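Methods — Computational structure assignment.
A single polypeptide chain was analysed. Its primary sequence is given first, followed by the predicted tertiary structure written as structure tokens.
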Amino acid sequence: MKIIATFLLTASILLAAPEIKITQTFKAQNIKLPVALTIPPDGTERLFLVQQFGKITILPKDRSSDEEITFLDLTDRPLIKQQFEEGILGLAFHPDYAKNRKFYIYYSLQDPKHTRVSEMRTFADDPDRADISSERVLLEIPQPFWNHNSGNIIFGPDGYLYVAIGDGGKANDPQRFSQNTFVYNGKILRIDVNTRTGNRPYGLPSDNPFLKKPGHHPEIFALGLRNPWGLTFHPDTNQLWAADVGQNAWEEINIITKGGNYGWSYREGAHSANARTDAPSKATEFIDPIHEYDRSSGLSITGGIHYRGKAVPELQGKYIYGDFVHGNIWALDFQNGRKTSNTKIFKRTKSTIKPTAFVQDSDGELLILSHDHKIYTISPRK
């Protein structure tokens, strides 16, 4: 038995994710507050960078160049970025973008404070420039406070648009929004941008879990979230992964299932939350995160991606994510429905990295967007 245990321990050490080093890439001097990066499905391999303060730009192919192209400029909208968690927060290209030129953005506006999901098109004769006059508003969500907007948007393998919305802000869910099915806050929504249902400017997928349930917005796909930050679909299983920023105790990673309730603000992670004293009298089936960490390791999780690059082969298939405040980065190995390891692969020391997103370039290599106005790439630490 000792031989077997020693073998398993040795094997786990050999398979452990390696430490990495990070290096700034894309030297463009005008990058400011990058929060998302998306590649359109049109074969051009262009990298569209969402800069929270109000612009979307196309990064240069030559990473040493300063020649960014402004794709969309919304800085003239009324106070688009007034506070720390407001601004342009999400971008998704239509799966048939190569033909219809449609893309979708999530951004915040003021007076009254709200967030908006809109459809736009590029100019037919200029694929590097958005036609602002083409804007078609799909959703507008009232926001009582400036924080917990979330704003991640992504098309799923099913062709539907998934929209992550935070609980509305301040601490401890004071509006009690996350469990309230009459509001969109604290939810992940799923809509069909290709059809119309009733007077809505979008369609409702026929298998949305609350489509015909009284007292529920039919767009809701999942609920009980605080501030989901980092949506990604697993490239093999098509499962939807989402990190959720904690209140004051636990940061978590969830696999989002149709109709799932992830507990906030009755729970934080897999634990009872101090935010509520009115827990339901009968048991509610909350879904546990697949991984969580406490405040000794970080203060604000940034969700990641499943690595498919070649720069660090040992990370293949692992979920790479980090912490915005502490700057640490981990590799989570989750296989066959269970966590097999979670390894810290980078600890911030002298760097100023504050990860806002983990994304892939056109070669599948990892790019880390950071609130220090930089973009980083990774390599093995030798």
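Note: The CA atoms of residues 306 and 319 lie 4 Å apart.
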